[in-house]
Amino acid sequence: xxxxxxxxxxxxxxxxxxxxxxxxxxxxxxxxxxxxxxxxxxxxxxxxxxxxxxxxxxxxxxxxxxxxxxxxxxxxxxxxxxxxxxxxxxxxxxxxxxxxxxxxxxxxxxxxxxxxxxxxxxxxxxxxxxxxxxxxxxxxxxxxxxxxxxxxxxxxxxxxxxxxxxxxxxxxxxxxxxxxxxxxxxxxxxxxxxxxxxxxxxxxxxx
Length: 207
Hints:
The chain is an alpha/beta fold and 207 residues long. 34% of the residues lie in helices and 13% in strands.
């Protein structure tokens, strides 16, 4: 997992992230846990994230605990989900919501729930991702990208399970997934979404 520039993941409701090459991101041992509080500093090393789920008080969401076992830095815009006595592993950097479109080039992979905004942003910035759709349209988004090759689709039930970690490792290291993500980004660069939408609206009105 750890290359000369240690990789990371983005996990959460808004944006993808990766590794920053710091000493902290390069360790390979399981990070210690730390208590989260509203005073926790927001940091932006490279990393990845997924939505929060029901959990016992004082425990971190299971995807966070799982990602805490990997030699990556995780930017997690999940501050609004956490309780004051929740704890997260030391490599999970809790933030408020982040502007996903400004993180392209700063992250290696993402873990997202498949909403239109995060999927489109990951595609437009060439960030491969693990997606766990929570609603039918989110599941469709993720599966469409998985069919294209720039994402891996999982069930929310897989969050924190061994298959989840395997998927995260794959999007970080599989050259085929990385190439597909780059190809999707290049396709987005030549697209004019506003013009395409206008054409569709005009065609519908004219029919």
